[in-house]
Each structure stands twice: as structure tokens, then as C-alpha cells.
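User: Could you check the structure of this?
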Amino acid sequence: MIKNDIALTMEEKSGFNKAKSLMIIEKILEELNTALANDEKVEIRGFATFKIVPKKTGYGRDIRKNKQIKIKKGKRIKFRPGQDLKNLK
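Assistant: Sure, the predicted C-alpha cells are below.
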């Protein structure tokens, strides 16, 4: 499912037109991005929790050159599903 599919579903279920649905989705994603960029934890109850966690420096292997490479430290997004999402089957 892509953003456009979500907007079409919102259009059918909420009565908003597609343009307004896309605008709402864009604003939600923009706020999520801003919060995560500021190292804030984002919790959408019943769905998931997102947070930024540090990534350690490590080593990997370049399989094309068969050489060991150093992986720089950085940050990654941790996704933890909520209880409602876990119970879906």
C-alpha cells in the first residue's frame, strides 16, 4: 500500500476529497519526521511507537571486493508495534 492508496481509502471512508486526504497524510508524516529529527519518541497508541536509537560503530564486509569495511556510528529508527497491531492476523 502506498500513500495514494491510503488517500483513496480515506476518501471513501471519510468523505474528504483525495486532495484533502493527501494533505492530511502529508501533514501527519511531516510531524512524525520533525519529531523524530528532534530525537522525540512518537507513540501512536494501538499502532506503534517510533524512536531514534544510536547505532554503534562496527565492521561489515564488502562482498564484491572481499574486504572488511568500517561502518560509521549513527542513528536509526526503532519501530515497535502496538498491542492492536500485534493482535491482527
